[in-house]
Amino acid sequence: MNTLERLWDRLPEWTRSIRFRYTLLYSAVLFGLAAVVLAAIYLILLMALRATPVSSGRGTFCMHGDCITVITFREAERLVNSEILGKLRYYSLGALGVLFVSSLGVGWVVAGRVLAPVGRITSVARDIQATDMSRRIQLPGPEDELKQLADTFDAMLARLDAAFDAQRQFVADASHELRNPLAIIRTNVDVALADPDASPDDLRQAIAVVKRAGDRMTLLVDDLLALARRQEPTLEHEPVDLGAAVAEASDDFMVPAETRDIVLDRAIAPGVVVTGDREALKRVVANLLDNAVRLAPAGSRIRLATGSEGNRAWIAVADEGPGISPDDQAHVFDRFWRADKARARADGGTGLGLAIVRQIVEGHGGEVRLHSKVGVGSSFVVWLPITRPAIDGGQR
Amino acid sequence: MRVLVVEDEADLADAVARGLRREGYAVDVAYDGDEALDKAAVNAYDLVCLDLNLPGIDGIEVVRRIRANGDAEPPRVLMLTARDRTADRVIGLDEGADDYLVKPFDFDELKARVRALLRRDAGRSGALLQVGDIELDSARHEARRVGQPLALTPKEFALLHYFMSRAGQVLSQEDLLEHVWDEHADPFTNTVRVTVMTLRRKLADAGEGQPIETVVGRGYRLREEP
Question: Does the predicted model carry a pTM greater than 0.80?
Fold first, then answer.
């Protein structure tokens, strides 16, 4: 085996190509077929025609001094047949030789033509890998197997490109969101320190501003880490009593709701069990309630309900807040998207809450839907599958 | 010199305004693009410190509209941005910003850039201004006449700075009010006249003659030659 491998390694580069192997195969098959056909014809003729070379004369007939060899008619026939078979053998072998050489040539050319698009795909792919991901192969020609391969490749590149773009955008957004509180801290500290006559009150005020910015960064970093962690397949797989988890998560919002004069109605159906990550599901409820409590007007009502329908469980949070316009509804689950940038930021929203909700829910194989009407209110409905296939080891 | 700070983060805008006011600038604050354009339409600013990422009308659009106003002396624009990608800065500069600073910035650097941008107005290349026997160092916040330090209040310093960057020009009380005082100054008080008077007295105490002369009915002028 080792000697074979070494021998293989010693062959020149071009002998290792598909083109070479294809040529050999093509040539061998063609040669073999032709050989079989010719051999069959030869054997059939051999059997059909009884041919024996005439070794010696049967007798001699002399007349007027001239002597000729005398054979029987049957013997003459055999002699002719033997001659013909001999010629046939000769020309057949010659034709096989010519066929072998020409099949090698034809095979090489045909294989080259067939494989040319593969070479093109390879070189463009190599280029793309080295330069920029926005390029595509765009193989011209009919809708054949290789074109399908190239198109599949293009589609994969497009998805990769989009994923990279999204990632870049996320990093840019995250750094933007982190730089603002950093700038607040730095500038306030610089200005306070540079003032030799700063009163204790001035300093206290500067510290309060710094603390506010620090709190904001803490929330933001928590949310960013939550998002990053949920991107990994780290969600737990355990039976979760949905009603209990939702009740637990919403307990934290009773007091904030009350202080804002908002009624939080809970209608939680018992006995709904889903498979998933208890803490993550609690976070879903907490993020939805956090938005509702922050944005709903004082004196309004927030309704939180859970239940099941068929093999799906649902959690719904409905508020009587300002509502979301149809144009904005497409964006609410985007990271860092805010309906009213200045206000939401001042209220302590990081712009990541709903993105986290969507990510967790989709990680559980569920979906989240928004129904909203401006001036009436918004409701978010989370659907979760009750039974998940046990073999599903990772997350989507 | 009059500065407009445009920034939607109130905590940042207020700190920048406080720091710049201590440097003697007359500073107004706008918290969004609309407010910035309103103020820029009413007041003649020498410099606008502009956050690129604003709710409503964004910073790029604000620069574009300020430039489109076609003022004879459009304000310098220093843009503040939390985006450090080159593309974002290129857009801002292309649209007419004069300089940029990436958040978070060192406040000393912000002051230096503000000084540098305002110097370009005066067509001078250093932090040091000299007119006749008066010297002014805007970086160190020091002014001298015949080498003798002048003890000036921030407002007097700002007023002298404005006179020196427009030496030889006649400046009306309205000009001075617009460029040295912020929007909270009451135009019906004689605050400009009083400050000019105290500045003139301090200048006269330090050297020979009075460099700031009154042009009757029109305003004041800083003489270029003593």
Answer: no
